[in-house]
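Reopening this one. Same input as before:
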Amino acid sequence: MTGPNGIIDFFLHPTFNFLTTSTSSPTDIVNPLTGSTVLAPTAGLAASFGIVWAVSFAPPFAGRTPGLLPIYEDKVFDLIVTHTLASGLVVVTQRFGTHESNGILFWEHLLPSNVLINVFPNFQLIVEWLIGI
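Same output, byte for byte:
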């Protein structure tokens, strides 16, 4: 029998078979992304558990390791997740940067206020929300 902790964990961190991707929920994402972008300018992102990304264009001089899923010598993007406290103070709760060509990132704390993404020069990135079904 599943206890209350198991039920809470299920809704906070659902398993992969209960997740899908979307470019429109909770807010529209216009792909591909380049430069600096605010993915979620509104508070209360109840629909998202994180993001999924894939590099759609990388410069030839970025270099990469051979293999099925490239890892670039240059950083692909940085991501900053913020939360707004009841007092109005905005705090950074998660920072993430990667050299990988694709992947998935879960929020450490749900309901972020803003998700800022900085795609490094000459890269293009396809991003989708990770939402529950």
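So the earlier flakiness isn't reproducible anymore. For the record, Residues 19-132 form a domain with the Jelly Rolls fold (CATH 2.60.120).
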